[in-house]
Structures are given as C-alpha cells and as structure tokens.
Design brief:
By secondary structure, this protein is an alpha+beta fold. It folds into 2 domains: about 5-120, Pnp Oxidase, Chain A (Roll), CATH 2.30.110.10; about 130-240, predicted glycosyltransferase like domains (Thrombin, subunit H, Beta Barrel), CATH 2.40.10.220. The protein has 3 helices and 16 strands. Strand 2 and strand 3 form a beta hairpin.
Length: about 240
Amino acid sequence: MQAFTDVQPEHWQEFALASRADILSVLRRLAEQERPLRLFDATAPAAPLATLRLLEADDTALLLQGAPDKAAALLAPDEVICDTTLDNIRILFGAAGLHEVRVDGAAAFRAALPQSLVRLQRRAYYRMPAPSAKPLHALIPRAGGKLAVLLHDISCGGIALRDDARALGSAIGQVYPDCEIALPEIGTVTASLQVRNCSEAPDQDRATRRLGCEFLDMSRAAMAAVQRYILNLERTRNARLAGLA
C-alpha cells in the first residue's frame, strides 16, 4: 500500500487549487467519470474504495458511496483523505464531517466540500524513462558500503527510484546525501536526493515501489551532464521510432 505520508495534501500545497470554481470543476469530472477513490484516515489501516457524487443543487456537499462493510471504519475519523486520478493526473483532497446517509437503500457518506484540492500534474523538468537495455542505478551511501537502486526515470530536477525491496525509507523530506549515478558515455554525477513522493502499484505477482526524489546540492556541471544524457536518450528513442536505430 502507498505510504500514508504521501497522501497528506499538506505535503503538496504548491500544487493545490483553492478556487471554489476550480475545485468544483475537478470534482464534477470525477463524479461524471465515476473515478474510484482510495480513502485513508490518519492511521491508514486500509484503503477502502469509494466513488464520488456531488450532492445538492448548489454543490455544497459531497457524497461518497462505497462498500457497506466499510461504513463503521469510515465513520470514526474526523476527516479522510481521498486519493484518485483524472486524466493520468493524481488528485488528493480531504473529506471532512463525514456522516452516514442512505442512498437507494445502501450506505453512503456525506461530507463537506473540500476547501482545497491537490493536482499533482506540473513538473519543472522533462522526464525520460530510464532505458531497460542499459539500466541505471543510483549508488546510495549506507553503513558499510553503497546500495545500488534501479532508476525508473530521470530529469534535470530529480529521479524516480524502483525500491521494490523496500531498502530505503520513504518519509517525505528524507535526504540521502552524496548519491552517485553513472551515466553511460557522459560520466558520474553526484548529488543529494530528497524524497518527494512514494507510490506503490501491483506488477504481476509483486508490488512495485517508486520513490520520487529531487536533486539537492547539484553542481551546474552535474546538471549539464544529466541534461546531455537525457538529450542522448531522446535522440536514440526518436531514431528508433523513425526506424533508423
């Protein structure tokens, strides 16, 4: 399951919408498409699924419909965090003041309209998937040596790590100093990595875990080296698509 620290909207305020019109626009689309929501409370013991409906003509409240056997668990917290996606963009918002209602004889939950809503869409840097033919690894200093962790993607702003072995901590804000990445035909770059998000997803018979990390204390030379590497990857990909490689 995804780390609960990663679904706390306050960690993502730079991506938050505060306009009521903008929030309602996103919520209406979630309701129209009946996107499934994962619900978390402060202890995150489970992630029951629900669907969203807007309630009342003036759009002053939400209606969450889910499995009836989850009713008791959802009534306990003052607020639950709703986690979903829309057009491949992650959406997070809080649902406060939950109380049970009945809809067509089934249990549902009425909640206040959220005051803010997070859309994790914007990225400061273009990201490229790490090549599978020549996998990249980040060497992360640990007691007694260095841990090699596979890269999922790379940008001039940071990397995503495939930490399927759960060897690294996933707390938002955690910093791993002096990490090294060997870039083929470019050289080795060194930077500190700060965990910015953590996500987990099923992959065949096991769950994958991805840590999104931001580069810290990276020199201009190292940044330029990463940029050259990404340009090389893009050229290779474009040539392959054109049938030239």
